Amino acid sequence: MNIWISEGLFSQIMTSLYPVSSKTISGVKWGYMNPRGKIQIKLIFDDAMEFQANGLAVVGLDGKYGLINHGGNFVVQPIYDSISEFSEGRAQVIGKEGFKVIGASGKVLTSKAYSFIGSFENGRALFGEFLEDSQYLYGYLDRQGKEVVPATFLTANEFQDDKAVVQFQSKEYALINKNGKALHKYPFPFVGNVGEGLLAFKETEDGKFGYIDVKGTIVIPPKFTSAMPFEHGRAIVNMAEDYGNEYGLIDKEGNFIYPPVYNDIHHLGKNRVAIGMAIKEESPFYGSNYALGMTDGTVLTEFKYLTILNFKEGVASAQREKKLILLTN
């Protein structure tokens, strides 16, 4: 494993540890190295995720997952089938009973297991469960694991800016507050979650996607085959009519910042995006070679990375062949 680090970056990330793997006679094993490439936590795990802001990392051992600290010691023993990333001090774990919520100490906060629990945003987490009549509905939990909005929605989204889009029934969507009160209703066959005051929507069941404001007024007419929520004034859209990909990045007026010619685009934070060109043009699902770009349309690198992860504390990791590259903003 090789690692490259920008000049002057050590003082910022010397306390960081990064997952690293190696092939052994027992299979691929994972551990953690520091920015200089020195192994800090031995390669004994079957899987290893990045350390999070709370100083914990999810690791896998013998088919189960737990949480370790920077010393490599288990804070939560590997007893779960899955552990999500922490959000607002909470993580979702999956065991034989279903989904539950834990705190950083590993204490289970929910009084029962659910068939689904999402991540916490704005103090709320989406949950789903089957009711007695076998109907599957969604509601919301608070950070203490209590049901503050009962399971009454056919579909629902995470909260953004203390609001979320839910579906009561066919062609009846609504924007609700954290207590479940409907603020606006939308008579469309599909409405996506709110992102910076705009929502993706479809006027007809088999139609294309556009954007409305929170009052339901059409801002960008339907013309996309897929449309993601806005982040930092930009949204990722697709123009492909078939199974190919023609992703672009638009502003809130619907103007293309990046033209719809890319195999993949995803937000990285810090006003940066990863833009991907198909490795095999005739086989777009084979994967992409990525470049780092800015949200104003400036391309900063060549299309030479297999992956680029989100920026955290001003640093993003990228993979180029067998090298781990640390990119700064």
UniProtKB/TrEMBL annotation:
InterPro entries: WG_beta_rep. It comes from the Bacteria. PANTHER family: DUF3298 DOMAIN-CONTAINING PROTEIN, GLR2918 PROTEIN. This is KWG repeat protein. It comes from Schinkia azotoformans MEV2011.
